[in-house]
Amino acid sequence: MTGKINLAAELKHYFGFDTFKGNQEAIIRNLLDGNDTFVLLPTGGGKSLCYQLPSLLMEGTAIVISPLIALMKNQVDAMRNFSEDEGVAHFINSSLNKAAIDQVRTDILDGKTKLLYVAPESLTKGENVDFLRTVKISFYAIDEAHCISEWGHDFRPEYRRIRPIINEIGPAPVIALTATATPKVQHDIQKNLGILEAEVFKSSFNRPNLYYEVRAKTANVDKDIIKFIKGNTERSGIIYCLSRKKVEELAEILQANGINARAYHAGMDSATRTKNQDDFLMEKIDVIVATIAFGMGIDKPDVRFVIHYDIPKSLEGYYQETGRSGRDGGEGKCITFYTNKDLQKLEKFMQGKPVAEQEIGKQLLAETAAYAESSVCRRKTLLHYFGEEYTEENCGNCDNCLNPKKQVEAKELLCSVIETIIAVKENFKSDYIIDILLGRETSEVQAHLHEDLEVFGTGIGEEDRTWNSVIRQALIAGYLSKDVENYGLLRVTEEGHEFLKNPKSFKITEDNDFDDAEEETPARGGGSCAVDPALYSMLKDLRKKLSKKLEVPPYVIFQDPSLEAMATIYPVTLEELQNIPGVGAGKAKRYGEEFCKLIKRHCEENEIERPEDLRVRTVANKSKMKVSIIQAIDRKVALDDIALSKGIDFNELLDEVEAIVYSGTKINIDYFLDEIMDEDRLLDIYDYFKESTTDKIEDALEELGDDFTEEEVRLVRIKFFSDMAN
User: Fold this and answer.
1) How does strand 332-338 pair with strand 303-308?
2) How far is CA 363 from the centre of its chain?
3) Average pLDDT over every residue of 238-242
4) At the top level of CATH, which class does the domain 625-725 belong to?
5) Residue 530's CB: how many other CB atoms inside 10 A?
6) Fold adopted by 408-508
7) 565-576 tens-digit pLDDT
8) Is residue 54 within 8 Å of residue 139, measured between CB atoms?
9) DSSP line for 22-63
10) Which range (134-138, 309-313, 512-516, 544-548) has the least confidence?
11) DSSP letter assigned to residue 117
12) Are strands 480-483 and 489-492 parallel, antiparallel or unpaired?
């Protein structure tokens, strides 16, 4: 059939393009010849055309199964723009009323409709199945086919019912398309759709124009993002967050800092959501802050950056989301903020799910963590995950390649890893292999009697991080493989066995260390800015001078993290000073003037250009908790009763009260202290804080002795701070 058709002429006629992209033409010919087809094309590779053009050339109506209503509407609008007939493309989903559905059916029966988009849920409805059985179907296209696989990043159970429905409606060729699938997911899709014999067309997953970078996620992440966006003004960008709450908070913070941003998530009313999406496409807004609900099929070619505020749940999700950047082949920056704590949160969310689902989820998370922590070329790691080999040593367009770490010889270490995997009969995951190497007698190791193995403890002296690097880089080099079917057990490949017989040079770079990312002081955001040591020292001197004059300990005036932030951001007005962590309006007014003068003079004398874009304006805290605590204390409600009424424990209440007084708000808890504490004990603790150079509870307890409890010390510290500093 295809021999008679001049596909290039048809492409020009219907779509106005002169040439096909990649292997589009071969895909279309395969489908026109009536063959099942499996298409793996990265985002921006032109997937839609692979079924749109053949639908116009074949007899009957093509059924396109697609997961999102917004995506269907966009594609139908696009097809209607190419055609003179409005009825050429339609969709059926829950948004249509009966009259609209009747119109769709009439156009199909009249032979006008070449493409019918349906959601899998609509496809399974009895009346739709009965109707479609009366229609000549040219082929079935399953778009976003990764949704079929439990190993895919957007698994949808209803996708697994597609094959039985196709059998019910009537046979026709099947084309499955996805922009992201590991070999495991690919097999899963083909098996589930019954197209194991399909011709597979796989394009390279490499997007050379995308720059990949992973940054430490510190307490300063919002500032980092604002600084980045202000350095990329009037450029379109997407920021992905995992929770709807964070999406809304971050969108508000960006707006407060003069950035034209809007939120997008599935919990918003549909009119607002659609308006925000359309405004982004029409460039009325620059930045969209979204959950992963945003972006599937959004055909905006000039998105210049994609930021992940939270680490995604899988590398496939990450690849798909970053792939929305630079679809026109122009610049695309992909910045991800990572801390191990986010992974722990995501693992907690999995609790309560079926065990098999938890295991899959944990493996996918482990792959994401490996990508984030690795110091190997990001491109190499990503492409290896998708079963593609990247042979360049340095891609020149990721953080690890632009700032390469020194390589160290790890021949002996790899031999130890291979020997250990063989000794435990290739039956365990990497964490367990590292436990054996480091001689850890965990309950699991003891249960298998593996503490008696010769290899047990042979790796003592190296860090976990080093062993992780060896295993990860040996996987990429092909000496080891991971059995995905069996929870990620490590296996030794033929090359690995050969390496053990004849070891050769094997160099590794040690993984990036993100363990302490959140512990850094707010001043050191993402490593992009550093404390000015000269100014920091001068600020400490000024604090010391004031502390003598006012007869209060230095930390009561401003704490160290506040001084570090001042020596980074250079606030020169009281308003700017209030954006410093731990500085409220009261403190700024009481102590701020001299600090601002000093900073201003330092900037002028040293011709320092202040990073004004780092002065993050915070959005008023919507949490009413602090306000209601202050009101309750004003009414002299006992603190333990306040904790009870808020549903928090007493220590959590003290955290809240400490935050209130540390930022400069004066409160009076004398009424409560009089009730629960002896006056002499109270004075002993109070006097300690007067004399001390630190406000640390541990130091206070050590000095005061076992006679005092942590709660007592914290309560008196609150009184002391409120009296002296506020």
Assistant:
1) parallel
2) 16
3) 92
4) mainly alpha
5) 12
6) Arc Repressor Mutant, subunit A (1.10.10)
7) 888 778 888 888
8) yes
9) TTHHHHHHHHHTT--EEEE--TTS-TTHHHHHHHHHSSSEEE
10) 512-516
11) E
12) antiparallel
What is the mean predicted confidence (pLDDT) over 397-408? 88
Position 527 pLDDT exceeds 60: no
Highest CATH level, class, for 210-353+364-371: alpha beta
* Least trusted range by pLDDT, from 8-22, 248-262, 528-542, 607-621: 607-621
For the domain 2-202, what is the CATH code? 3.40.50.300
Measure CA 621 to chain center: 24
- For the 530-614 domain, the top CATH level (class) is mainly alpha
> What does the domain layout of the chain look like in residue ranges?
2-202, 210-353+364-371, 408-508, 530-614, 625-725
**Section 708-712 average pLDDT:** 87
Domains 2-202 and 210-353+364-371 share a fold: yes
Nearest partner of 64 among 93, 97, 42, judged by Cα: 93
CA torsion, ordered 671, 677, 679, 685, to nearest 10 deg: -110
Length of the chain (residues) = 726
Alpha-helical segments (H) within 194-233: 221-230
User: And the tokens for 113?
Assistant: 């409709």
pLDDT digits (tens, 9 = 90+) for 117-132: 998 888 878 888 898 8
Instruction: Specify the pairing of strand 236-240 against strand 115-118.
Output: unpaired
User: Strand 480-483 relative to strand 61-65: parallel, antiparallel, unpaired?
Assistant: unpaired
With 0.85 as the threshold, say if the pTM is over it: no
CA distance 454 to 439: 11
In terms of average pLDDT, the best of 305-309, 571-575, 580-584 is 305-309
Taking the C-alpha atoms of residue 440 and residue 467, their distance in angstroms, rounded to an integer, is: 14
